[in-house]
Design brief:
747 residues; Immunoglobulin-like; TIM Barrel; Rossmann fold; six-stranded mixed β-sheet; binds beta-D-glucopyranose
Length: 747
């Protein structure tokens, strides 16, 4: 038996042996992919197409769920057929690494659709995304898929960017905690049975100019290291993520996909990352065709692979013939190609693909069974954020006569994020030239959820569409509101990648009011005098100052997934008490952006008077904000010891008591401020949080620990620096309400 086939041999020995047997052409096929739809014939895999398209084998199979549109059983059969083809019809029988998206669920038709990432972040409970990705891991592996193109670890402070919904929000610490948990669940307990998590988009993609997708990200070096890189470092160090995806944008003249500093110096040399770096789709070609830092595909390939970008996706293009010629001509050393190929092969060995590339027919209950629906419901509930509740307008009595109004009330599709199966199929289907089904699992919409709980009369009037100028439905909506005790307006957008979408990838906005004529609808309904409860079903923080004045209660549902409507209804009727908190602040107006809590002492205000001429400087709803149907009291803050050294740990304890009428959940948040430092430091930095459930009258002590050494920041020379001095400790239920204060001294 050849060494590489012998599983008793060590990993490096097997990699080295296989590498030594590969021709240059065969090596390059390992550095590229093929779209799944290119290998489809009818309802399955086409050996004839494979023989024509990938005669030497292929490194990666792209987007098998969305590209085929198959159900899970057919995906498994397709992957098995591909692996059998590779084993039997290519010289060395190297299995393919199969990937799909999985941000808010495995994007395969019929697999559960969970809340979008921004909603997951709103739970402030990392254990939840970890459970979600553990379920996704089982689903993917059961259908023969080995790599998930998630999570998105971009830190985003700009609601104009359509992809803000894919992120865990504006704060590096919260993004890190969510990211680590997400990766742990996906990678699982051991490398062989895990799904390779892909951290993206490395790095700084969420900070593009004017919130425009793919635009340059003007990030100063210190901010890059202190805000945008830590989530990636944490997911690699703490959760052992095995892949990183390069990004489309440039920073200060260097495209991220050609950045040796990012892809090699920081990622490999500083952090010791040993996994695989893949290109965002077409990012290698973009170096030539978009950024113009390479004269042709060959130059693009050379830049990218030299910088440390191992795999070109989705198809082998610049890394094919153009790169082959460069190697033959001695312009790219073989060692550079070998380095990239060995990273790919190492993963394939680690995953056990040479021994077992096939999967058994999957159990249908794995994809959207009762346990998945229950988890989707729990996640959706916990992601709800009660933004406003004046006069205790919510919860509603179940006997109330309710007018349910708005374009998002009875359309389940609007509850799904841009990386859900339907949104992806709407884009990839037409692009592939194939017709793939765009519907997937049953989505409980808000109207259905409310009908399930109401004991009173419910009247539905859509009022208007998400977009467009059509106001012809207003009259009916107003009539419905007049005859009701309360009007629930479910407003929002459509998330996806196609032109009819208002949020999602490639769907950036210049205005952040409700899309279309929905604000006019809210006003028309409010003018009836019937109180309005606004439910937001959307992927971005809207700038709602003007309509917030006319609505006493606002519930943010984000893009809550397949059980979202049920969760919203439970919250509206008080069957569930919302306890989520904002992972990103809401501006009053779009012109304030960026408005974020982790600002510098001179940030977030305009000297001399502080505010704008035409607006307060602060956010409408700050980071960490979220109300409840009950009330919580904070007391007894203790910070011990008062003086600490680098190797010491500061313990912060606080007592939380439920002083309201019902049980509920509160997220206790710990912020720190370095009072004086040799470079400017943020006025507040989140350093800990804990979601606590309490019954009325119940009280609990919450404890946080902070290591002295973790207080280092980047000094004037960008090197880590631990400076003695005073630290202020702030604890509370939002960044703007962290009013219990203490101090300690670092010596
Ligand atoms: C996105 C990536 C995604 C890739 C493949 C790109 O447009 O930027 O996040 O993983 O497509 O679906």
């Amino acid at each position: 038996m050849e060494v590489y086939r012998d599983c008793a041999r060590g990993l490096e020995e097997r990699v080295g042996d296989l590498l030594s047997r590969l021709t240059l052409e065969e090596k390059l096929t390992q550095l590229g992919g093929v779209w799944s739809f290119e290998l489809v014939e009818g309802e399955g895999f086409s050996p004839a197409k494979a023989a024509a398209r990938i005669p030497l084998g292929i490194g990666h199979l792209c987007r098998v769920g969305v590209g085929t549109g198959f159900d899970p059983a057919a995906i498994a059969a397709f992957c098995n057929d591909l692996q059998r083809y590779l084993r039997e019809h290519t010289r060395l029988g190297i299995p393919a690494l199969v990937h799909e998206e999985c941000l808010s669920g495995y994007t395969a038709r019929g697999a559960a659709i969970f809340p979008q990432a921004i909603g997951l972040a709103s739970t402030w409970e990392p254990e939840l995304p970890e459970r979600m990705t553990a379920a996704i891991r089982e689903q993917m592996r059961a259908t023969g898929v080995h790599q998930g193109l998630a999570p998105v670890l971009d830190v985003c402070r700009d609601g104009r960017w359509g992809r803000v919904e894919e992120t865990f929000g504006e704060d590096p610490y919260l993004v890190s905690r969510m990211g680590v948990a997400y990766v742990r669940g996906l990678e699982g307990p051991e490398p062989r049975s895990g799904v390779v998590a892909t951290l993206k988009h490395f790095a700084g993609h969420g900070a593009s100019e004017a919130g425009m997708n793919w635009a340059p990200a003007p990030i100063p070096p210190r901010e890059l290291r202190e805000v945008h890189l830590p989530p990636f470092a944490a997911a690699i160090r703490e959760a052992r993520a095995r892949a990183v995806m390069s990004a489309y944008h440039e920073m200060d003249g260097v495209p991220a996909s050609a950045s040796a500093e990012l892809l090699t110096a920081i990622l490999r040399e500083e952090w010791g990352f040993e996994g695989m770096v893949i290109a965002d789709y077409y990012a290698v070609d973009m170096l030539h065709a978009y950024h113009r830092v390479a004269a042709d595909k060959a130059a693009a390939a050379r830049l990218a692979i030299t910088a440390g970008l191992d795999v070109e996706l989705p198809v082998l293009d610049a890394y094919g013939e153009p790169l082959r010629r460069l190697v033959v001509e001695g312009k790219v050393p073989m060692a550079v190609v070998d380095r990239a190929v060995s990273r790919v092969l190492r993963l394939k060995f680690q995953l056990g693909l040479f021994e077992q590339p096939f999967v058994d027919p999957p159990d249908p209950a794995l994809f959207d069974g009762p346990a998945h629906r229950a988890l989707a419901l729990e996640l959706a509930r916990k992601s709800l954020v009660l933004l406003r509740n004046e006069g205790g307008r919510l919860p509603l009595a179940r006997e109330a006569r309710v007018a349910v109004i708005g374009p998002a009330a009875a359309d389940g599709r609007l509850l799904l994020g841009d990386y859900s199966y339907p949104a992806q199929a709407e884009m990839v289907g037409p692009a592939s030239g194939r017709t793939v089904p765009t519907s997937s699992v049953h989505v409980v919409d808000v109207l259905e959820g409310m009908r399930g709980l109401s004991r009173g009369e419910i009247r539905f009037a859509q009022g208007c569409q998400v977009l467009g100028e059509d106001r012809s439905g207003f009259a009916e909506a107003v009539r419905a509101a007049r005859g009701a005790d309360v009007a629930v307006v479910v407003a929002g957008g459509r998330s996806g990648l196609t032109l009819d979408c208002t949020c999602g990838e490639m769907r950036d906005r210049a205005e952040l009011g409700l899309p279309g004529v929905q604000e006019e609808l809210v006003r028309a309904v409010a003018e009836t005098g019937t109180p309005v409860v606004l439910v937001l079903v959307n992927g971005r923080p809207y700038a709602l100052e003007s309509i917030a004045r006319v609505v006493p209660a606002i519930l943010e549902a984000w893009l809550p997934g397949e059980e979202g409507g049920r969760a919203v209804a439970e919250a509206l009727y008080g069957q569930y008490n919302p306890g989520g908190k904002l992972p990103i602040g809401f501006p009053r107006r779009v012109g304030q952006i960026p408005v974020y809590y982790r600002r510098k002492p001179s940030g977030g205000r305009s000297q001399f008077w502080g505010d704008y001429v035409d607006s307060p400087a602060g956010p409408l709803f700050p980071f960490g904000h979220g109300l409840s149907y009950t009330r919580f009291a904070y007391s007894d803050l203790k910070v011990q010891p008062a003086v600490v050294a680098r190797e010491d740990t500061v313990t912060v304890t606080v007592r939380l008591t439920c002083v309201g009428p019902v049980s509920g959940e509160e997220v206790v948040q710990l912020y720190l401020r370095d009072e004086v430092a040799s470079v400017t430091r943020p006025v507040q930095e989140l350093k800990g949080f804990c979601r606590v459930h309490l019954a009325p009258g119940e009280s609990r002590e919450v404890t946080f620990t902070v290591d002295g050494g973790s207080l280092a920041f980047l000094g004037p020379d960008l090197r880590p620096l631990l400076e003695p001095g005073t630290y202020r400790v702030m604890v509370g239920g939002s960044s703007a309400a962290a009013t219990l204060e203490g101090v300690f001294e670092l010596v």
